[in-house]
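SAMPLE LOG
Freezer: B-3
Tube label: C17
Construct: single chain, 255 aa
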Amino acid sequence: MPDALWSALQTEGLIWLFAAIVAAGLVRGFSGFGSAMIIMPAASSVLTPFGAITFLIIVELVGPLPNLPDALREGHRGDALRLILGAAVTLPLGLWGLSLMAPEIFGWAVSGIVLVLLCLLMLGVRYRGYLYPPLVFGAGGLGGFLAGVSGLPGPPVIMLYMASTQAIAVIRANFLLYLLAIDVLMLTGFAVLGQLRAEPVVIGFLLIVPYVMANMAGARLFDPGQEGRFRAVAYTIIAASALLGLPIWSGSHAP
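STRUCTURE (predicted):
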């Protein structure tokens, strides 16, 4: 472990990861989503594909825990369970795709997926009908596949819920429960595949404290009346992270 700690501290781009973690924590704490779209472009420019997602899993698994009691109380557990079950079905397919992907392709794919999904969100692409249980299950399934192949489980569910008539606090709580479950499923899948490596795990634990603090700060900032303004700021941060995470800025990935 001392060797892994020293290696983690020597990781090129660690400051970039720290900045992404703080920004992502603020966004996640306020809105309940969006953190992976900030973290993954940064992580994919520094770590290998499995390493980047491992790092994301570690910080995402622990960071939102202070907000879990509120989520369990405010969320719609039936919908959250459907999302989680859908993700559990398709996640293995996404992990299989990830295992076939070259690191340089992964970097382009992550930033590309983030930018496309961000454009769809900003253009107001939403599902505006009734949230039938099979539809919720399907959104979770698409999110599970994207989680496995790119570490980005949130956007399909975000686009499903943005036009929902449910209260923003309920939607926010459902996102948190769904994303936490995704992290547990991913960690289990990586362990089964033998893809857990010490360095990204250690880096994740090193940055958990600032991520938790940023989550708590973001939760304190939560004000439904300021949702539009904060969403604009979050979109700007996500776009900047995706553009800065493009492989053109970095010629290699850390092992």
